[in-house]
């Protein structure tokens, strides 16, 4: 990718994370319209498919954003945590998309895929906490963004089982802080490359 162009790696990551937040909000709005929290039934199957589709799309967009962010942080001290967080969230995302797919295609109820959803929740919070640590270590964004991301996700992971032990999946909680990372990435300047990476690129251009 041409780092001098607008669509550098970090800006692509920021775009996907912001889109994930917006898509998740669309699902939350549809869930609220039918009073899903109160057990309200969707007005139609099509409505339900769109609602759950928005939630699945948000997870996929988030996973892509984290993978791109990991690549952006490759030359920083935060790369290991970024790889850990992106891999963890990707695995978690696969589980919840499978669970939602089973609900839509096989007609399974939420309780029948509860184990998959709960595993997603735990892994997603852990993965996003790792992303926060990566942001903090890399210094690619202001330190408070990394701290806020870590504290939010760890706090949710600890408190949700205590407050609502029978239902710990609230999709908005996983996407609530994504704009904190996504918007600054869209507006960020290129990261300076590490000496090792610069030397490697220079040597690659030397004819032998």
Could you explain how this protein is built, in words?
The structure is a single chain. 73% of the residues lie in helices and 0% in strands. Mean pLDDT is 88; it is low at 194-208. The protein is built from 8 helices and no strands. The protein has 208 residues and is an all-alpha fold. It has helices spanning 9-33, 45-72, 79-105, 114-138, 143-163, 171-175, 178-187, 195-204. It has one domain (9-204).
Spans with pLDDT under 50 lasting ≥5 residues? 194-208
Helix content: over 70%
Number of strands: 0
Mean pLDDT: 88
Topology, please?
Blueprint: H1 9-33, H2 45-72, H3 79-105, H4 114-138, H5 143-163, H6 171-175, H7 178-187, H8 195-204
Helix pairs in contact: 1-2, 1-7, 2-3, 3-4, 4-5
Short note summarizing the structure:
This protein is mostly helical. Helices cover 73% and strands 0% of the residues. It is built from 8 helices and no strands.
Keywords for this structure?
208 residues; mainly alpha
């Amino acid at each position: 990718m041409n780092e001098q162009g607008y669509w550098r790696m970090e800006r692509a990551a920021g775009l996907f994370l912001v889109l994930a937040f917006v898509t998740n909000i669309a699902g939350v709005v549809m869930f609220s319209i039918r009073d899903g929290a109160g057990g309200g039934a969707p007005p139609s199957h099509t409505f339900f498919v769109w609602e759950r589709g928005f939630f699945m799309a948000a997870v996929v967009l988030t996973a892509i954003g984290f993978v791109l962010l990991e690549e952006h942080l490759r030359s920083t001290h935060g790369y290991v945590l970024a790889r850990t967080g992106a891999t963890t969230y990707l695995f978690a995302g696969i589980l919840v998309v499978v669970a939602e797919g089973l609900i839509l295609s096989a007609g399974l109820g939420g309780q029948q895929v509860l184990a998959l959803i709960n595993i997603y929740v735990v892994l997603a919070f852990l993965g996003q906490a790792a992303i926060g640590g990566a942001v903090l270590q890399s210094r690619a964004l202001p330190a408070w963004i990394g701290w806020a991301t870590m504290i939010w996700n760890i706090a949710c992971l600890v408190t949700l089982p205590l407050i609502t032990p029978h239902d710990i999946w609230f999709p908005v909680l996983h996407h609530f802080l994504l704009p904190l990372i996504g918007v600054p990435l869209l507006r960020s300047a290129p990261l300076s490359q590490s000496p090792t990476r610069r030397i490697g690129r220079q040597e690659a251009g030397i004819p032998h």
